[in-house]
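Why does this matter for the project? Reviewers at the last site visit asked to see concrete outputs rather than summary tables. In response, this paragraph embeds two records directly. Each consists of the residue sequence and, immediately after it, the corresponding structure tokens. Nothing has been edited or filtered.
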Amino acid sequence: MSALPGTGRRRFIAIGFRVGTYLALSLIMGPVIWLVTGIISRAVPHFSWSVLTHPTAGESGGLENAIIGTLLLMLGVLVIAGGIGILAGLHLAEFAKPRKSGKESGHLLRTASDVLSGFPSIVLGYVGYVALVLGLHWNFSLLAAWIILSIMVIPYIAKSTETALRQVPTAYREGAEALGMPAGYALRKVTLKTALPGIVTGLLIALAIACGETAPLIYTAGAFADSPVSVSLTHHPVPYLTFLVYGFYTLPENASHYLAYDAGLILVVLVLLLLVSARLIVNRTQHYSEGRR
């Protein structure tokens, strides 16, 4: 039996697409593996567990205060940006209705979010410095850093939340309505639960950005590596890991370089922990979903 006309051409195109996907995957994974391997190879030979329990002292010491400061920054972003971003995405996906003009009521909000996501982080940091550090006399502080970091990542959370909610099949909503579920109960138990993987992904991106930013934090949290951690929301600088990576690597002493490598390693570990935690949450909440039956 002879092959169907065009079979060889289609097979060639399919193989080409498969090779292209593998090439794209290697272009993504290659730099990641190179960066992670470089950080680990430089940090592990000189790593000491004492850096986790001792604060920074001048150009030496440990990273305890910077680790705590970074975790506080991430916690604030999770609460402030997570709450506002998820509510904004929920409004755009579920409550923004078309007007008589043909545009949704959330058109302005979506446009503002897109514009905000395009602002350079250093510009937002300078605005925070002028408005919060100097204008409100907060000085370098935790609250100023929270606000600027949250403003920077809210568009990502809102967009990912809206996209995840819009991808929930219409049949799920219709089924909940047919069963007589109240709108609020159906939204919580059906729509949001189904969209949870996408929402968690948006939060993960936000925390990763907050964990790895430096420029806006220099303007709002300060640039004091050996500053002790304080519970005061204003009038006290906050130490954080990214400044140590940036600042200590430029110093001539080897001890400073080792601290910079250790700070980079801890940042990588934090990101990996975020990834693992997100996957565990998604797998737990989607245990009885349709795709796992």
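We now turn to the second protein, recorded in exactly the same manner.
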Amino acid sequence: MTHRGGVALMLSMAFSLAISVGAYGADTLRIGYQKSATTLVLLKGEGSLEKSLAAQGVNVKWTEFPGGPQLLEGLNVGAIDFGYTGETPPVFAQAAGAKLVYVANEPASPTAEAILVPKDSPLRTVAALKGKKVALNKGSNVHYLLVQALQEAGLAYSDIIPVYLSPADARAAFVSGNVDAWVIWDPFDAAAQQQLQARTLRDGKGIVANYEFYLATSDFAKRHPQVITTLIGQIRLVDKKATDDPQAVTQLVAPLLGLPEDITRIAVERQNYQAAFIAPEVIANQQQIADTFASLKLIPQRLNVKQAVWTPPAL
């Protein structure tokens, strides 16, 4: 896209200005991440961000969360300053009044999430989920995947029985047979496919974008814009590594995730990498998600997503 060249220039210039970050008074950048955040997991593991910000007098603190909704709750209560989630959690958070802003996003990765059933399940289509128990993390990226897949199959959201569980609890329910299907993202998706031989009823291809977002508290982004631009610049460097050599990244990330390399490689390859500041088409996609959940009354009111998009400082 044409905006990417401008983004690259903006980030390059941001690096030269980042030295002035001390003037903003930030002494600690608190980052929330989750296992699906390959880029942040690797960034944390290699320590390059700490080195970049140490010269500016900024420390980095990392906190792991089980999913996007939980991470954004941490953002909302002030436990972290910056985090990474799928496309749906920010919609629920904004609807709940969270003071957050979209900072940047990774490209669409629709095959990095899926609706799974046990290997011996008689269910063969999404339409067969009518009346069935479906596990998912409420307000996560897969919530929108489920809504769209049901609509494609001619079903309403009310036609299934949603069972709202964290990834770990959902896997346990899936294994024990307490739910009929599980909607989940990588690397949990890849792990279920490899370890449990779970079958995919539907992934996101053709029905969702599945963007991944970097978000910050509105207050932190306003007070420390150069910390944010430096951070996104470091993320883009890691993104390039993941794109250029997924096997090397797999070998680095697998032990950090505590997963076998074969599972990690699947997750790494199903994700796309090239962080960019938020473009109009990405805002439009988020607005569509927000409008969908408002119409289903899963969020209390309609939102204006654009109001929650951070504008990088003019350079």
